[in-house]
# Entry
Amino acid sequence: MKLLQKYALPALIVISIFLVGWIFGHRYGRQLTEGQINILVGSRMNDKINRAVSYIGNDYIEPLTADSLAELAIPAILKELDPHSSYIPAREFQQVEEPLQGEFDGIGIVFNMATDTVIVLNVVPSGPSQKAGVLAGDRIIKVNDTLIAGQKMAQREVMKRLRGRRGTQVELSLERKGIAEPVVVTVTRDAIPLNSVEATVMLREKIGFIRLSQFARTSHREIKSAIDTLRKQGMESLILDLRGNSGGFLDQAILIANEFLEQGQLIVYTEDRNKKQIRQHSDGRGSATDLNIAVLIDESSASSSEILAGALQDNDRGTIIGRRSFGKGLVQSQIPFSDGSAMRLTVAKYFTPTGRSIQKPYKAGDEEEYNMDIVNRYKHNEFFSADSIHFADSLKFVTPKGKTVYGGGGIMPDIFIPLDTTNMTKYYLEVSGRNILYRYTIEYADNHRKSLSEARSLADIEKMFSQDRGMFNRFVEYASKSGVQPHWGQIATSRKIMEAQLKAYIARNSEFDSSAFYYFISPIDNTLLTAIKTLESND
# Structure
Protein backbone atom coordinates (compact mmCIF):
# COMPACT_ATOMS: atom_id res chain seq x y z
CA MET A 1 0.00 0.00 0.00
CA LYS A 2 2.81 2.40 0.95
CA LEU A 3 4.61 1.56 -2.28
CA LEU A 4 1.43 2.33 -4.19
CA GLN A 5 1.06 5.66 -2.43
CA LYS A 6 4.69 6.49 -3.11
CA TYR A 7 4.30 6.17 -6.85
CA ALA A 8 0.64 7.21 -7.15
CA LEU A 9 1.28 10.92 -7.54
CA PRO A 10 4.00 10.64 -10.22
CA ALA A 11 1.74 8.30 -12.17
CA LEU A 12 -1.10 10.75 -11.95
CA ILE A 13 1.17 13.56 -13.08
CA VAL A 14 1.91 11.46 -16.17
CA ILE A 15 -1.81 11.19 -16.83
CA SER A 16 -2.31 14.89 -16.28
CA ILE A 17 0.51 15.81 -18.63
CA PHE A 18 -0.96 13.45 -21.17
CA LEU A 19 -4.22 15.36 -20.85
CA VAL A 20 -2.44 18.56 -21.83
CA GLY A 21 -1.01 16.84 -24.87
CA TRP A 22 -4.30 15.23 -25.73
CA ILE A 23 -6.24 18.48 -25.49
CA PHE A 24 -3.83 20.28 -27.77
CA GLY A 25 -3.63 17.35 -30.15
CA HIS A 26 -7.39 17.03 -30.31
CA ARG A 27 -7.73 20.76 -30.93
CA TYR A 28 -5.42 20.58 -33.93
CA GLY A 29 -6.76 17.23 -35.19
CA ARG A 30 -3.60 15.19 -34.66
CA GLN A 31 -1.46 13.44 -32.04
CA LEU A 32 1.40 15.38 -30.52
CA THR A 33 4.87 14.07 -30.88
CA GLU A 34 7.18 13.61 -27.92
CA GLY A 35 9.08 16.74 -28.90
CA GLN A 36 5.92 18.81 -29.12
CA ILE A 37 4.79 17.67 -25.68
CA ASN A 38 8.22 18.67 -24.37
CA ILE A 39 7.62 22.19 -25.60
CA LEU A 40 4.22 22.34 -23.93
CA VAL A 41 5.19 21.02 -20.50
CA GLY A 42 8.75 22.31 -20.33
CA SER A 43 12.17 20.97 -21.13
CA ARG A 44 12.87 20.09 -17.53
CA MET A 45 10.37 17.22 -17.63
CA ASN A 46 11.88 13.81 -17.13
CA ASP A 47 12.43 11.95 -20.42
CA LYS A 48 10.93 8.78 -19.03
CA ILE A 49 7.66 10.54 -18.31
CA ASN A 50 7.63 12.17 -21.71
CA ARG A 51 8.10 8.84 -23.41
CA ALA A 52 5.32 7.25 -21.36
CA VAL A 53 2.94 10.05 -22.33
CA SER A 54 3.82 9.65 -25.97
CA TYR A 55 3.23 5.90 -25.93
CA ILE A 56 -0.12 6.26 -24.14
CA GLY A 57 -1.28 8.90 -26.57
CA ASN A 58 -0.26 7.05 -29.70
CA ASP A 59 -0.40 3.34 -28.94
CA TYR A 60 -2.85 2.55 -26.10
CA ILE A 61 -5.36 -0.08 -27.29
CA GLU A 62 -8.50 1.77 -26.18
CA PRO A 63 -9.60 5.17 -27.47
CA LEU A 64 -9.16 7.81 -24.80
CA THR A 65 -10.72 11.21 -24.33
CA ALA A 66 -9.46 14.11 -22.31
CA ASP A 67 -12.74 14.32 -20.39
CA SER A 68 -12.76 10.70 -19.28
CA LEU A 69 -9.16 10.87 -18.13
CA ALA A 70 -9.73 14.15 -16.33
CA GLU A 71 -12.62 12.67 -14.35
CA LEU A 72 -10.23 9.99 -13.10
CA ALA A 73 -7.00 11.95 -12.77
CA ILE A 74 -8.13 15.12 -11.01
CA PRO A 75 -9.89 13.41 -8.05
CA ALA A 76 -6.96 11.03 -7.65
CA ILE A 77 -4.42 13.86 -7.56
CA LEU A 78 -6.46 15.86 -5.06
CA LYS A 79 -6.85 12.79 -2.86
CA GLU A 80 -3.07 12.74 -2.41
CA LEU A 81 -3.05 16.28 -1.03
CA ASP A 82 -5.21 17.06 2.00
CA PRO A 83 -8.60 15.78 3.25
CA HIS A 84 -10.59 18.79 1.99
CA SER A 85 -9.28 19.42 -1.50
CA SER A 86 -11.87 17.81 -3.75
CA TYR A 87 -13.36 17.54 -7.22
CA ILE A 88 -17.07 18.05 -7.89
CA PRO A 89 -18.30 16.45 -11.14
CA ALA A 90 -20.72 18.48 -13.22
CA ARG A 91 -23.56 16.01 -12.51
CA GLU A 92 -23.18 16.61 -8.74
CA PHE A 93 -22.36 20.32 -8.69
CA GLN A 94 -25.92 21.63 -8.40
CA GLN A 95 -26.76 19.10 -5.69
CA VAL A 96 -23.67 20.13 -3.68
CA GLU A 97 -24.21 23.87 -4.08
CA GLU A 98 -28.00 24.04 -3.75
CA PRO A 99 -28.29 23.84 0.06
CA LEU A 100 -25.99 26.85 0.39
CA GLN A 101 -27.71 29.12 -2.12
CA GLY A 102 -30.82 29.93 -0.10
CA GLU A 103 -33.41 28.55 -2.51
CA PHE A 104 -34.24 25.75 -4.93
CA ASP A 105 -36.96 25.00 -7.46
CA GLY A 106 -39.62 22.64 -6.15
CA ILE A 107 -43.18 22.22 -4.84
CA GLY A 108 -42.73 23.52 -1.27
CA ILE A 109 -43.41 20.67 1.14
CA VAL A 110 -41.63 19.11 4.10
CA PHE A 111 -42.04 15.37 3.92
CA ASN A 112 -40.82 12.22 5.56
CA MET A 113 -40.92 8.53 4.78
CA ALA A 114 -41.65 6.81 8.08
CA THR A 115 -42.19 3.53 6.28
CA ASP A 116 -42.53 3.31 2.52
CA THR A 117 -45.04 6.15 2.33
CA VAL A 118 -44.34 9.82 1.62
CA ILE A 119 -46.07 11.80 4.36
CA VAL A 120 -46.43 15.57 4.05
CA LEU A 121 -45.39 16.99 7.43
CA ASN A 122 -45.76 20.66 6.54
CA VAL A 123 -46.56 22.83 3.55
CA VAL A 124 -44.53 25.99 2.87
CA PRO A 125 -46.86 28.99 3.51
CA SER A 126 -47.94 30.62 0.22
CA GLY A 127 -45.83 28.06 -1.65
CA PRO A 128 -46.81 26.09 -4.77
CA SER A 129 -48.26 23.10 -2.90
CA GLN A 130 -50.38 25.23 -0.58
CA LYS A 131 -51.76 27.12 -3.57
CA ALA A 132 -52.62 23.79 -5.22
CA GLY A 133 -54.42 22.50 -2.13
CA VAL A 134 -51.89 20.08 -0.62
CA LEU A 135 -52.43 19.66 3.14
CA ALA A 136 -50.21 18.56 6.02
CA GLY A 137 -50.93 14.89 6.68
CA ASP A 138 -51.50 14.01 3.00
CA ARG A 139 -49.85 10.85 1.68
CA ILE A 140 -48.35 11.09 -1.81
CA ILE A 141 -49.45 8.02 -3.75
CA LYS A 142 -48.30 8.94 -7.26
CA VAL A 143 -46.08 11.58 -8.83
CA ASN A 144 -47.34 12.01 -12.40
CA ASP A 145 -47.65 8.42 -13.59
CA THR A 146 -45.10 6.96 -11.16
CA LEU A 147 -46.43 4.98 -8.18
CA ILE A 148 -44.63 6.10 -5.00
CA ALA A 149 -46.56 4.47 -2.16
CA GLY A 150 -45.41 1.00 -1.18
CA GLN A 151 -42.45 1.00 -3.57
CA LYS A 152 -39.66 1.42 -0.99
CA MET A 153 -38.29 4.20 -3.18
CA ALA A 154 -35.23 6.01 -1.87
CA GLN A 155 -35.92 9.51 -0.54
CA ARG A 156 -33.53 11.08 -3.05
CA GLU A 157 -35.50 9.47 -5.88
CA VAL A 158 -38.73 10.94 -4.53
CA MET A 159 -37.10 14.37 -4.30
CA LYS A 160 -35.83 14.05 -7.85
CA ARG A 161 -39.40 13.56 -9.07
CA LEU A 162 -40.85 16.38 -6.98
CA ARG A 163 -38.23 18.98 -7.83
CA GLY A 164 -37.86 20.58 -11.23
CA ARG A 165 -37.43 23.84 -13.06
CA ARG A 166 -39.73 26.62 -11.86
CA GLY A 167 -42.79 27.04 -14.04
CA THR A 168 -43.06 23.32 -14.82
CA GLN A 169 -45.96 21.27 -13.49
CA VAL A 170 -46.24 18.01 -11.59
CA GLU A 171 -49.41 16.02 -10.86
CA LEU A 172 -49.78 14.51 -7.40
CA SER A 173 -52.23 11.80 -6.35
CA LEU A 174 -52.86 12.16 -2.63
CA GLU A 175 -54.39 9.94 0.02
CA ARG A 176 -56.26 12.15 2.48
CA LYS A 177 -57.74 11.09 5.80
CA GLY A 178 -61.53 10.92 5.63
CA ILE A 179 -61.70 10.91 1.83
CA ALA A 180 -62.13 7.56 0.07
CA GLU A 181 -60.88 8.49 -3.40
CA PRO A 182 -57.41 9.87 -4.19
CA VAL A 183 -57.19 13.66 -4.33
CA VAL A 184 -55.44 14.74 -7.53
CA VAL A 185 -53.76 18.16 -7.67
CA THR A 186 -51.50 19.86 -10.20
CA VAL A 187 -48.63 21.83 -8.66
CA THR A 188 -46.67 24.45 -10.57
CA ARG A 189 -43.08 24.42 -9.34
CA ASP A 190 -41.52 27.64 -8.12
CA ALA A 191 -38.57 28.99 -6.14
CA ILE A 192 -38.63 27.63 -2.59
CA PRO A 193 -36.57 29.32 0.14
CA LEU A 194 -34.07 27.18 1.99
CA ASN A 195 -33.78 28.49 5.51
CA SER A 196 -30.54 27.89 7.37
CA VAL A 197 -32.15 29.08 10.62
CA GLU A 198 -34.15 26.00 11.62
CA ALA A 199 -35.58 27.25 14.87
CA THR A 200 -36.32 30.59 16.52
CA VAL A 201 -38.01 30.28 19.90
CA MET A 202 -38.07 31.64 23.46
CA LEU A 203 -37.10 28.86 25.90
CA ARG A 204 -37.39 30.99 29.04
CA GLU A 205 -38.80 34.43 29.79
CA LYS A 206 -35.60 36.25 28.76
CA ILE A 207 -33.67 33.50 26.94
CA GLY A 208 -34.03 33.00 23.19
CA PHE A 209 -32.86 30.08 21.10
CA ILE A 210 -31.68 30.06 17.48
CA ARG A 211 -30.59 26.93 15.66
CA LEU A 212 -28.40 27.49 12.61
CA SER A 213 -28.06 24.36 10.47
CA GLN A 214 -25.49 25.70 7.96
CA PHE A 215 -23.83 28.87 6.74
CA ALA A 216 -25.76 29.55 3.56
CA ARG A 217 -25.89 32.64 1.38
CA THR A 218 -28.75 34.07 3.47
CA SER A 219 -27.62 33.01 6.96
CA HIS A 220 -26.56 36.43 8.23
CA ARG A 221 -29.83 38.00 7.13
CA GLU A 222 -31.78 35.14 8.71
CA ILE A 223 -29.88 35.45 12.00
CA LYS A 224 -30.54 39.21 12.20
CA SER A 225 -34.23 38.64 11.51
CA ALA A 226 -34.40 35.89 14.16
CA ILE A 227 -32.70 38.13 16.75
CA ASP A 228 -35.16 40.94 15.98
CA THR A 229 -38.08 38.52 16.37
CA LEU A 230 -36.85 37.27 19.74
CA ARG A 231 -36.06 40.77 21.04
CA LYS A 232 -39.71 41.69 20.51
CA GLN A 233 -40.57 38.74 22.76
CA GLY A 234 -38.30 40.00 25.54
CA MET A 235 -35.01 38.25 24.78
CA GLU A 236 -31.97 39.48 26.73
CA SER A 237 -29.81 36.35 26.37
CA LEU A 238 -29.30 34.09 23.36
CA ILE A 239 -28.43 30.44 22.86
CA LEU A 240 -26.96 29.89 19.38
CA ASP A 241 -27.00 26.20 18.46
CA LEU A 242 -24.25 25.20 15.99
CA ARG A 243 -24.30 21.48 16.79
CA GLY A 244 -24.13 19.41 13.63
CA ASN A 245 -23.43 22.53 11.54
CA SER A 246 -20.67 21.50 9.12
CA GLY A 247 -20.04 25.01 7.80
CA GLY A 248 -20.56 26.80 4.51
CA PHE A 249 -19.76 30.33 3.40
CA LEU A 250 -16.94 32.01 5.33
CA ASP A 251 -18.30 35.52 4.79
CA GLN A 252 -21.53 34.57 6.58
CA ALA A 253 -19.61 33.38 9.65
CA ILE A 254 -17.69 36.68 9.69
CA LEU A 255 -20.86 38.75 9.34
CA ILE A 256 -22.61 36.84 12.12
CA ALA A 257 -19.60 37.15 14.45
CA ASN A 258 -19.57 40.88 13.69
CA GLU A 259 -23.07 41.19 15.17
CA PHE A 260 -21.75 40.20 18.61
CA LEU A 261 -18.35 41.97 18.73
CA GLU A 262 -17.22 45.52 19.47
CA GLN A 263 -15.34 47.56 16.88
CA GLY A 264 -11.85 46.50 15.90
CA GLN A 265 -11.88 43.00 17.34
CA LEU A 266 -10.19 40.31 15.25
CA ILE A 267 -12.64 37.67 13.98
CA VAL A 268 -10.41 35.31 12.00
CA TYR A 269 -7.33 35.34 9.83
CA THR A 270 -6.05 33.12 7.06
CA GLU A 271 -2.45 32.32 6.20
CA ASP A 272 -1.21 30.89 2.90
CA ARG A 273 1.95 28.91 2.20
CA ASN A 274 3.95 32.14 1.82
CA LYS A 275 2.83 33.24 5.33
CA LYS A 276 0.69 35.98 3.81
CA GLN A 277 -2.18 36.80 6.14
CA ILE A 278 -5.62 38.20 5.52
CA ARG A 279 -7.28 39.50 8.70
CA GLN A 280 -10.97 40.17 9.30
CA HIS A 281 -12.02 42.62 12.04
CA SER A 282 -15.40 43.68 13.41
CA ASP A 283 -16.65 47.04 12.21
CA GLY A 284 -18.51 48.16 15.33
CA ARG A 285 -21.94 48.01 13.73
CA GLY A 286 -23.05 44.79 15.39
CA SER A 287 -26.66 44.70 16.53
CA ALA A 288 -26.24 42.11 19.31
CA THR A 289 -23.28 43.37 21.32
CA ASP A 290 -25.53 43.75 24.35
CA LEU A 291 -26.82 40.18 24.39
CA ASN A 292 -25.47 37.52 26.72
CA ILE A 293 -24.67 34.57 24.48
CA ALA A 294 -23.98 30.85 24.76
CA VAL A 295 -22.86 28.88 21.71
CA LEU A 296 -23.48 25.13 21.47
CA ILE A 297 -21.03 22.95 19.53
CA ASP A 298 -20.22 19.27 19.11
CA GLU A 299 -17.94 16.97 17.13
CA SER A 300 -19.91 17.68 13.94
CA SER A 301 -19.55 21.47 14.17
CA ALA A 302 -16.98 22.35 11.54
CA SER A 303 -15.39 25.06 9.41
CA SER A 304 -17.50 28.25 9.61
CA SER A 305 -19.06 27.00 12.86
CA GLU A 306 -15.57 26.79 14.35
CA ILE A 307 -14.62 30.21 13.02
CA LEU A 308 -17.67 31.76 14.70
CA ALA A 309 -17.22 29.86 17.97
CA GLY A 310 -13.47 30.59 18.00
CA ALA A 311 -14.00 34.30 17.35
CA LEU A 312 -16.40 34.63 20.27
CA GLN A 313 -14.30 32.47 22.60
CA ASP A 314 -11.01 34.23 21.86
CA ASN A 315 -12.61 37.65 22.35
CA ASP A 316 -14.05 36.58 25.72
CA ARG A 317 -17.54 36.95 24.30
CA GLY A 318 -20.05 34.48 25.61
CA THR A 319 -19.65 30.86 26.66
CA ILE A 320 -18.95 27.89 24.39
CA ILE A 321 -20.76 24.74 25.60
CA GLY A 322 -20.70 21.14 24.36
CA ARG A 323 -17.93 18.90 23.01
CA ARG A 324 -14.77 19.54 20.98
CA SER A 325 -15.61 20.56 17.42
CA PHE A 326 -14.55 18.74 14.25
CA GLY A 327 -11.32 20.57 13.41
CA LYS A 328 -11.66 21.75 9.79
CA GLY A 329 -9.40 24.75 9.41
CA LEU A 330 -8.32 24.54 5.78
CA VAL A 331 -9.40 27.22 3.30
CA GLN A 332 -10.63 26.05 -0.10
CA SER A 333 -10.75 28.11 -3.26
CA GLN A 334 -13.39 26.87 -5.69
CA ILE A 335 -12.19 26.76 -9.29
CA PRO A 336 -14.96 26.24 -11.89
CA PHE A 337 -14.46 24.35 -15.14
CA SER A 338 -16.23 24.99 -18.43
CA ASP A 339 -18.18 21.70 -18.30
CA GLY A 340 -19.94 22.69 -15.05
CA SER A 341 -17.62 20.78 -12.73
CA ALA A 342 -15.37 22.42 -10.14
CA MET A 343 -12.28 21.85 -8.04
CA ARG A 344 -11.97 22.91 -4.42
CA LEU A 345 -8.29 23.44 -3.69
CA THR A 346 -6.87 24.15 -0.24
CA VAL A 347 -4.97 27.44 -0.41
CA ALA A 348 -4.64 28.56 3.22
CA LYS A 349 -5.37 27.80 6.87
CA TYR A 350 -7.82 29.41 9.32
CA PHE A 351 -6.61 30.82 12.64
CA THR A 352 -8.62 32.12 15.58
CA PRO A 353 -7.87 35.61 17.01
CA THR A 354 -5.39 34.23 19.58
CA GLY A 355 -3.48 32.44 16.83
CA ARG A 356 -4.90 28.93 17.19
CA SER A 357 -5.00 26.76 14.08
CA ILE A 358 -8.47 25.27 13.77
CA GLN A 359 -7.28 22.36 11.61
CA LYS A 360 -6.70 19.03 13.32
CA PRO A 361 -3.62 17.00 12.30
CA TYR A 362 -3.73 14.95 9.11
CA LYS A 363 -1.43 12.95 6.84
CA ALA A 364 -1.48 13.84 3.17
CA GLY A 365 -3.17 11.11 1.19
CA ASP A 366 -4.46 9.23 4.24
CA GLU A 367 -8.15 10.05 4.05
CA GLU A 368 -9.17 6.85 5.82
CA GLU A 369 -7.31 7.71 9.02
CA TYR A 370 -8.64 11.26 8.91
CA ASN A 371 -12.22 10.05 8.59
CA MET A 372 -11.73 7.73 11.56
CA ASP A 373 -10.88 10.60 13.91
CA ILE A 374 -14.41 10.97 15.32
CA VAL A 375 -14.65 7.22 15.86
CA ASN A 376 -11.30 7.26 17.62
CA ARG A 377 -12.46 10.10 19.88
CA TYR A 378 -15.40 7.92 20.90
CA LYS A 379 -13.12 4.92 21.53
CA HIS A 380 -10.77 7.07 23.61
CA ASN A 381 -13.67 8.22 25.82
CA GLU A 382 -13.51 11.84 24.63
CA PHE A 383 -17.30 12.01 24.25
CA PHE A 384 -17.77 11.17 27.91
CA SER A 385 -14.90 12.81 29.79
CA ALA A 386 -13.02 16.08 29.27
CA ASP A 387 -10.06 14.52 31.10
CA SER A 388 -9.61 12.14 28.14
CA ILE A 389 -8.68 15.08 25.92
CA HIS A 390 -4.99 15.98 26.23
CA PHE A 391 -3.33 19.11 24.86
CA ALA A 392 0.37 19.87 24.73
CA ASP A 393 1.58 22.99 26.57
CA SER A 394 2.86 24.28 23.22
CA LEU A 395 -0.77 24.52 22.07
CA LYS A 396 -1.80 26.78 24.96
CA PHE A 397 -3.07 30.27 24.15
CA VAL A 398 -4.48 33.02 26.37
CA THR A 399 -7.42 35.34 25.63
CA PRO A 400 -7.31 39.09 26.45
CA LYS A 401 -9.05 38.44 29.79
CA GLY A 402 -6.65 35.65 30.74
CA LYS A 403 -8.70 32.57 29.82
CA THR A 404 -6.63 29.60 28.64
CA VAL A 405 -7.64 28.07 25.32
CA TYR A 406 -5.98 25.32 23.28
CA GLY A 407 -5.10 24.79 19.65
CA GLY A 408 -4.38 21.49 17.98
CA GLY A 409 -7.61 21.06 16.12
CA GLY A 410 -11.18 22.13 16.69
CA ILE A 411 -12.60 24.36 19.38
CA MET A 412 -12.59 23.02 22.94
CA PRO A 413 -15.69 24.34 24.76
CA ASP A 414 -15.54 26.38 27.95
CA ILE A 415 -18.02 23.95 29.50
CA PHE A 416 -17.77 20.30 28.48
CA ILE A 417 -21.01 18.30 28.25
CA PRO A 418 -20.57 14.54 27.97
CA LEU A 419 -22.68 12.41 25.69
CA ASP A 420 -25.52 11.17 27.87
CA THR A 421 -26.59 7.54 27.40
CA THR A 422 -27.64 6.78 30.99
CA ASN A 423 -31.38 6.48 30.37
CA MET A 424 -31.19 4.73 26.98
CA THR A 425 -32.57 1.33 27.90
CA LYS A 426 -32.99 -1.67 25.60
CA TYR A 427 -36.71 -0.86 25.37
CA TYR A 428 -36.01 2.70 24.26
CA LEU A 429 -33.45 1.58 21.70
CA GLU A 430 -35.97 -0.90 20.29
CA VAL A 431 -38.87 1.54 19.87
CA SER A 432 -36.65 4.28 18.46
CA GLY A 433 -34.36 2.10 16.35
CA ARG A 434 -37.30 0.32 14.72
CA ASN A 435 -38.95 3.71 14.05
CA ILE A 436 -41.98 2.75 16.17
CA LEU A 437 -41.82 5.92 18.27
CA TYR A 438 -41.74 8.14 15.20
CA ARG A 439 -44.52 6.23 13.40
CA TYR A 440 -46.74 6.68 16.45
CA THR A 441 -46.21 10.46 16.32
CA ILE A 442 -47.31 10.50 12.66
CA GLU A 443 -50.54 8.69 13.53
CA TYR A 444 -51.10 10.94 16.54
CA ALA A 445 -50.62 14.05 14.40
CA ASP A 446 -53.09 12.68 11.85
CA ASN A 447 -55.69 12.15 14.56
CA HIS A 448 -55.12 15.62 16.03
CA ARG A 449 -54.54 17.52 12.79
CA LYS A 450 -57.30 20.05 13.56
CA SER A 451 -55.87 20.97 16.97
CA LEU A 452 -52.33 21.23 15.59
CA SER A 453 -53.37 23.41 12.66
CA GLU A 454 -55.42 25.71 14.90
CA ALA A 455 -52.62 26.17 17.46
CA ARG A 456 -51.51 29.81 17.55
CA SER A 457 -48.77 29.36 20.12
CA LEU A 458 -46.62 26.67 21.66
CA ALA A 459 -48.72 27.10 24.78
CA ASP A 460 -51.73 25.87 22.77
CA ILE A 461 -49.84 22.70 21.84
CA GLU A 462 -48.66 22.25 25.41
CA LYS A 463 -52.30 22.52 26.55
CA MET A 464 -53.30 19.83 24.04
CA PHE A 465 -50.66 17.48 25.51
CA SER A 466 -51.64 18.21 29.11
CA GLN A 467 -55.27 17.39 28.36
CA ASP A 468 -54.33 14.06 26.79
CA ARG A 469 -53.17 12.08 29.82
CA GLY A 470 -53.39 8.76 28.01
CA MET A 471 -50.96 9.62 25.20
CA PHE A 472 -47.96 7.77 26.62
CA ASN A 473 -49.89 4.64 27.58
CA ARG A 474 -51.38 4.45 24.08
CA PHE A 475 -47.83 4.66 22.73
CA VAL A 476 -46.80 1.67 24.86
CA GLU A 477 -49.81 -0.26 23.50
CA TYR A 478 -48.87 0.77 19.95
CA ALA A 479 -45.31 -0.46 20.51
CA SER A 480 -46.63 -3.75 21.85
CA LYS A 481 -48.75 -4.29 18.73
CA SER A 482 -45.65 -3.45 16.67
CA GLY A 483 -43.65 -6.23 18.32
CA VAL A 484 -41.95 -4.54 21.31
CA GLN A 485 -43.44 -5.86 24.53
CA PRO A 486 -43.49 -3.54 27.55
CA HIS A 487 -40.73 -3.79 30.12
CA TRP A 488 -42.03 -1.49 32.83
CA GLY A 489 -38.75 -1.04 34.67
CA GLN A 490 -37.00 0.06 31.49
CA ILE A 491 -40.00 2.18 30.49
CA ALA A 492 -39.79 4.03 33.81
CA THR A 493 -36.08 4.68 33.27
CA SER A 494 -36.50 5.99 29.72
CA ARG A 495 -39.93 7.59 30.10
CA LYS A 496 -38.70 11.18 30.28
CA ILE A 497 -36.72 10.75 27.03
CA MET A 498 -39.59 9.12 25.20
CA GLU A 499 -42.20 11.62 26.39
CA ALA A 500 -40.04 14.54 25.24
CA GLN A 501 -39.44 12.95 21.85
CA LEU A 502 -43.12 12.12 21.37
CA LYS A 503 -44.12 15.72 22.07
CA ALA A 504 -41.30 17.17 19.94
CA TYR A 505 -42.08 15.04 16.87
CA ILE A 506 -45.81 15.66 17.16
CA ALA A 507 -45.41 19.41 17.66
CA ARG A 508 -43.20 19.58 14.57
CA ASN A 509 -46.37 18.88 12.55
CA SER A 510 -47.66 22.34 13.48
CA GLU A 511 -46.91 25.67 11.82
CA PHE A 512 -44.09 26.13 14.35
CA ASP A 513 -42.15 23.26 12.72
CA SER A 514 -38.60 22.86 14.11
CA SER A 515 -39.03 25.68 16.63
CA ALA A 516 -41.67 23.53 18.32
CA PHE A 517 -39.39 20.50 18.11
CA TYR A 518 -36.54 22.17 19.99
CA TYR A 519 -38.90 23.71 22.54
CA PHE A 520 -40.35 20.34 23.51
CA ILE A 521 -37.05 18.43 23.30
CA SER A 522 -35.24 20.91 25.56
CA PRO A 523 -36.14 19.14 28.88
CA ILE A 524 -33.86 16.21 27.94
CA ASP A 525 -31.11 18.20 26.19
CA ASN A 526 -28.34 18.52 28.79
CA THR A 527 -26.26 20.87 26.65
CA LEU A 528 -29.22 23.18 26.19
CA LEU A 529 -30.17 23.02 29.86
CA THR A 530 -26.58 23.88 30.86
CA ALA A 531 -26.68 26.88 28.52
CA ILE A 532 -29.91 28.08 30.12
CA LYS A 533 -28.44 27.69 33.62
CA THR A 534 -25.25 29.51 32.58
CA LEU A 535 -27.11 32.45 31.08
CA GLU A 536 -29.46 32.71 34.06
CA SER A 537 -26.48 32.84 36.42
CA ASN A 538 -24.90 35.63 34.32
CA ASP A 539 -27.96 37.89 34.60
About this structure: The CA atoms of residues 467 and 512 lie 20 Å apart.
